[in-house]
Specification:
- The protein has 248 residues and is of the alpha/beta class.
- It contains nine helices and seven strands; from the N terminus they run αααββαβαβαβαβαβα.
- 42% of the residues lie in helices and 15% in strands.
- The chain has a seven-stranded mixed sheet with strand order 1-7-6-2-5-3-4, with helices on both faces.
- α1 (2-34) packs antiparallel against α3 (43-55), α1 (2-34) packs across α5 (111-118) and α3 crosses α4 (85-92).
- The longest helix is centred in the first third of the chain and has 33 residues, at 2-34.
- Residues 74-188 form the Phospholipid/glycerol acyltransferase domain.
- It is an enzyme of class 2 (transferase).
């Protein structure tokens, strides 16, 4: 069975998904140029992500969608298990959002231009000026239900465990006084970890936890926010994916 899937992945699924990626990127670029970027910057990518999971024979379960309101702007913070985290959140979260991503991702052919056209937020962590520009763009973008998705670990886990959270991922939530929604991703590491280019069919679970709202008078306390979101995300992971190393 594994041999059959290996040939299916490289000879059938991969060519189809490559074509779908190019078509989705072009649709996003042209659609955002001609019309509403919040629509064209979200729905083509959502369909593309679902098709990626379907052609990869990856099943998805979503828990807790009742915890979010489509008219409320949030900062979603999620653990980062593998490459399929992108498809899981984009395809199945069910809430319009922008990604916060590394500036270097703009160089990916087709995809980088599509992300820029869609209004996703690129960050150059080495430039204080760029960080301020990011904040100003976020202030203009995150309203009327538009949200942001961030991976506070910064990169995919190398071993399947939950690792340190970085403070910078929470800065926009604090500066803009937005509620934070922890997301737990389970199963993505087994589907495709950072250590392989091979897909393993399986099941991914996305758990949407209740939002953490800022105090009406004082806003968020960053240390408390990091601890609470970390513990909430960890609570929906199997024991082997937890880690004694916590936030920093």
């Amino acid at each position: 069975m594994k041999v059959l899937f290996f040939f299916y992945q490289w000879l059938i699924a991969l060519p189809i998904l490559l074509v779908l990626t190019i078509l989705t990127a072009l649709t996003t670029i042209i659609g955002c140029f001609l019309g509403n970027g919040n629509i064209w910057g979200y729905f083509p990518g959502r369909i593309w992500s679902k098709l990626f999971c379907i052609f990869s024979m990856v099943r998805v379960e979503v828990r807790g969608r009742e915890n979010i309101n489509k008219n409320t702007s949030y900062v979603f913070v999620a653990n980062h298990q593998g490459a399929y985290d992108i498809f899981l959140i984009y395809g199945y979260l069910g809430h319009n959002f922008k990604w916060m991503m590394k500036k270097s991702l703009r160089k990916i052919p087709f995809v980088g231009k599509a992300c820029a056209a869609a209004g996703h937020i690129f960050v150059d962590r080495n430039s204080p000026k760029s960080i301020m520009e990011t904040l100003h763009k976020a202030e203009e973008t995150l309203k009327d239900g538009m949200s942001l998705v961030v991976f506070p670990e910064g990169s995919r886990t190398p071993d399947g465990k939950l690792h340190r959270f970085k403070k910078g991922a929470y800065q926009l939530a604090i500066d803009l006084n937005l509620p934070v929604v922890p997301l737990t991703i389970d199963g993505s590491y087994a589907v495709m970890s950072r250590n392989t280019y091979l897909i393993t069919p399986g099941k991914m679970i996305l758990t949407i936890h209740p939002a953490i709202y800022p105090d009406p008078q004082q806003g968020h306390d960053i240390q408390e926010l990091m601890e609470k979101s970390y513990e909430t995300i960890a609570s929906a992971l199997p024991a082997e994916a937890e880690n004694i190393v916590k936030k920093s």
